Amino acid sequence: MDEHINTHKLLKEQFVSNLTGSSLLEIAALSTIVPAVVVLRKWSCGDNTRRDSFKKKNDALPGHKGFAHYFSTLVVDYLTIVLPVLLVFTIFAEWACACAIFLVMLISILTMFKRSQSHLKAGVNQLPLLRADISSYRVSVVLVTCLCILAVDFKIFPRRYAKAETYGCGIMDLGVGSFVVANALVSRQARNITTMRWNKVLMSTSPLIFLGFARLISTSSVDYQVHVGEYGVHWNFFFTLAAISILTSVIRIHPKYCGLVGLLVLAGFQTWLSSGLNKYLISNERSADIISQNKEGVYSIFGYWGMYLIGVSLGYNLFFDNSSKGKHRSTQVVKVWVLAVSFWILAIILDSYVERVSRRMCNFAYVMLVFGQNFQVISILTLAGFISYEKNMVLEDAFNQNMLGSFLLANILTGVVNLSVDTLSASPLTAFIILLVYSFTLCTVAGLAQFCGVRMKFW
What is the pLDDT of residue 391? Predict the structure, then answer.
């Protein structure tokens, strides 16, 4: 029995190993589809306003009629957002670029025909500031990540979308970087809240450390498949986030200067990589010490820290710097679009002439690609405000209220599916049905938690 489990575990690890990723063009196409379907859904909602009965401050819970309306809206959100994304990431993967082009054309046509009937009559600058789009962006990051962490274990999910072994980039490679950027843009540092005591620092970091050890212990105890080349033997995603949080708290930098410091950190780290560190990180060489055992996770902290600092600077300057007069939505939107294009150009240049994109090392090219992809998503999401003033959806509010809880539930459900189903032998139809049930369950639980006012928060 143990031999069978170990063999099955080895097959699953090999299934996600030695991959080279997809093209930057396909990543750009996928990064267009996700926010585009969100924009179309928001436009279809028209000018519906949020009901006070769904707000947490309301003591009286809605009745049966309110619940039926809430749940039906949640189902429509699922069918118009989650289902199309799931289809593009599985069955329609070969038509991703065509789908992206179609959605761009559709949004362009709708923009031309609807702008005259929208709130633009009152002027663009009377629309909410760009902060309103950040919640949509953060929910999109969590939602796509939750879909991919299970889908990657099935053959219906293209191998080029999975994480690349050394160089190259699949859409899943952008997950950890997107989490870092999403956190940095709205962090306490970006809001220039520097007076944070050590006990609060420990309280805010301890859940990540706890989750890191919990994942390590749980995966070891059930002999769950873990790709060592991703972070190392013991390291994982939660330890990386915790390390960044501790570094940022210890070395306090004013958000005005975070961008410059971040660029210097990345430039220094890239120089170190090009001087020979990259060969060590992509090799199979591991000694007995803890750093060597987890070399990918430990050394990539420098890259993620530089990424975080740049994200803090961008968040401060775009969303939270109240000293800038005349900060209007139209100006912010233009800045976001310019940044998206600039980051993409830098990523292409660095990938071609300095070092190929590598999530495993978190090199300069990878950081610029993460920013390019994330700001592309944000820039497309800003289009929602040009027609519909109301920007909240039930699904969006549900995930936004329990972002960490939703991600943890997704990890638990992924583990349950992998331990109970032979994902490698599942037919495309079986795999898609499992993914449908999984994603619908995740959205339903998040919706019910939001409806009942339940919020998962450790600090």
Answer: 53
